[in-house]
Amino acid sequence: MTRLILFNKPFGVLPQFTDKGTVGSPRPTLSAFVDVPDVYPAGRLDMDSEGLMLLTDDGRLQARISDPRFKMPKSYLVQVEGTITDAALAALRAGIMLNDGMTLPAEAESIAPPDLWPRDPPVRFRKTVPDHWMRLTIQEGRNRQVRRMTAAVGLPTLRLVRWAIGDWTVEGLAQGTWREVGDPA
């Protein structure tokens, strides 16, 4: 039976089980939270991003989730610096030219601030610069793609939470916790 684990990754945690890149004090990794043998991340989530990670012991499922050719949608809740305009949303929906090429069109909408767990450390608050939230759904997974897309439309990302991958969501899953779901095959 295939194992599939949904994990709500906290901010500052490496999206891997070991930290081979640090001399001295190691950074926190998945192994501090998930003690399940022989499961591996299906895709990545930057150390400074939070939210849903999927872990599986099935290589084919891992490829189906993470390989861009399968176009599995990934939804993010994004706190941005600045005011979200119709023009910015239209640009995101049309696709953004990044230094590694044009992105596929995204689903983008402005949303009310979501009811999320507190982030540690908190996002820096500036009285003179507004911040707003958007939901962004992409079907690719380029390196830091959401951050680069929002920056390209003049809205730097302050906080990035992956909410869903395909039909799997982080809803009801406390930060730093995980649950196993039934056989996804």
TrEMBL record:
Q: Please list the residue ranges annotated as the Pseudouridine synthase RsuA/RluA-like domain.
A: 4-152
Q: Which SUPFAM superfamilies match?
A: Pseudouridine synthase
Gene Ontology biological-process annotations: pseudouridine synthesis; rRNA processing
Superkingdom assignment: Bacteria
In short, the EC number is 5.4.99.-
Checking Pfam families in the record gives: PseudoU_synth_2
| Leading EC class | isomerase
Among Gene3D superfamilies, the record links this protein to: Alpha-L RNA-binding motif, Pseudouridine synthase I, catalytic domain, N-terminal subdomain
Q: Name one GO molecular function term.
A: catalytic activity, acting on RNA
Q: Which UniProt keywords apply?
A: Isomerase
Q: What InterPro entries does the entry give? A: PsdUridine_s_RsuA/RluB/E/F_cat (IPR042092), PsdUridine_synth_cat_dom_sf (IPR020103), PsdUridine_synth_RsuA/RluA (IPR006145), PsdUridine_synth_RsuA/RluB/E/F (IPR000748), PsdUridine_synth_RsuA/RluB_CS (IPR018496), RsuA_PseudoU_synthase (IPR050343), TruA/RsuA/RluB/E/F_N (IPR020094)
Family to which this protein belongs: Belongs to the pseudouridine synthase RsuA family.
Q: Name the PANTHER family on file.
A: PSEUDOURIDINE SYNTHASE FAMILY PROTEIN-RELATED (PTHR47683), RNA-BINDING S4 DOMAIN-CONTAINING PROTEIN (PTHR47683:SF2)
From the Swiss-Prot or TrEMBL record, give the protein name: Pseudouridine synthase
Q: Which organism is it from?
A: Sphingorhabdus profundilacus
